[in-house]
Amino acid sequence: MNNFSTQNNNVPRNIKTFFDYLKGNAPQNDLCKKIDDSVVKAIKHEEWRADYMTLSMKYHDIYNDAREEGLAEGRAEGESKLSALILLLQKDGRISEINKVASDEAYLAANFAPTV
Does the pTM of the predicted model rise above 0.85? Predict the structure, then answer.
């Protein structure tokens, strides 16, 4: 969790202290100490810990399933576009390019990449 910076001098001191705590530094003000005490209490609470682990595993499974689904969709879309390109090359009589397109990703990207 290191995606923020408090280098800007316009950031209030209490916010800088809070961000420092989120970065893993020891709590330096009352709010951060209360938050830290609550975190320690939650970590030590066995039932909450078991619930957290169960939820964490469930979210991990959901993430992995969604990732696999997205990858499968991407592969299917890529295969569909490659098939369409091969059919167009065949129709245009550019048979020699079909093997290059099907086997050489660099050739495919250099010669048939979509333009933005």
Answer: no
